[in-house]
Amino acid sequence: MQRNADVVKLGATVGVGYAGNAARKLFATAERRIELDHALELRTAEAVAERLGNMKGALMKLGQMASYLDDALPAPLRQALAQLQSSAPPMSGELAAQVIADDFGARPEQLFVEWDPEPIAAASIGQVHRAVAIDPHTGQERAVAVKVQYPGVAEAVATDLRNADLLGAMLKQGFGGLDPDDMVAEVKERLTEELDYRLEAANQQRFADFFRGHPTIHVPDVLAQLSSAHVITSELVDGHTWQEMLLWSQHERDLAGECLFRFVFRSLYGMHAFNGDPHPGNYLFHGNGRVTFLDFGLVKHFTDDEMTTFIGMVKAAAYDHDPTRFRRILEHAGMLQPGCPAPDDEVGEYFSQFYESVRDDREVTWSREYASGIVRHTFDRTSPIAQYATVPKAFVFIQRINLGLYALLGELRATGNYRRIAEELWPFVQGRPSTPMASDEQPWLRAAVREHPAL
Fold first, then answer.
1. Are 369 and 438 in a shared domain?
2. pTM of whole model > 0.85?
């Protein structure tokens, strides 16, 4: 009840602000009106970020997503929400220590050689502390990152997810063909899984093992004996944040973008899984295209049948340019209801917007405008095709990873021949290395293929 009341209060605060601003603008000069609008944007941004940051859980995660998905948001609001990516208001060090004590029966000062009660990052589900632990394999001291879940966040997320059914009903009103049940169920399942740190630790270690030895992709190892249902201890990594990396040269940003792209699709095609939370706070950058990937709470695993569908779609739409076969796959997958009156080429154009940057053998520069256009296209209800379209369960987080990745590449203005990069990753092509990063990857890839033939 309190969380719902907080949302209502936030809406009322913003509404009153806009009403008061409109009244003040009645007798203001044009210059003064601009000043008033800017001041209102700043106040609104601060109010929204503060409220969502303190609420944690799914609503804070929604604020994180909004900060990088849609370039049309007012700049002050995007900047304020961006703070939620890694620097939300933290819980007290004593409260974090109590969570550890409840799970392990010992306080952090007893479990670790050193423990810093001040968090180095705080996000939607938990916060991270520095510590020093004894490595069980070497017996040596090593620096570690200890992620501690906020007490009560499970109940907060459960409250937010109870409102997901209402969101599904609202979406149903705008998209005549949308069946929200699968979509809402998938969101509930994945966000509920994110609360289980034992599952997250297993996911992270699986990614760490898969990418071990990769020249540019790094995932920190987990210390299983110091991890539990509400605590994850892993290797501590120092690196540059997203905002710091954005100040680097365009060449460095291009390399970072290529690494992000390779990580997503190597994971999808090689592991049949990917990390479904692609926001800027989940990366550390080291230069020369090297990236450390953090936070594996929202991992989606796919069946062989689902992978066959994904691969068939990209092959028909982006490689063979066969709109008729593409439409048959869409209907078989449940993305398009049979009977849509639009011809095959229009259906293909509507659904293949995601493949625009890999359709042709050419150099492309990702842009914020393209990324925002994809977001708008995804939720556009004016097209008659939208009334026959829906989002099956398997595709909910495919859409999210695409939207998130494209938004990040657009902010980087990453440039490269992404068609050739994609052909290296597509299992039906397995193209030759097209970039220096791809050449550096070959020794790792040869070893990985022996364990993962899908690569």
1. yes
2. no
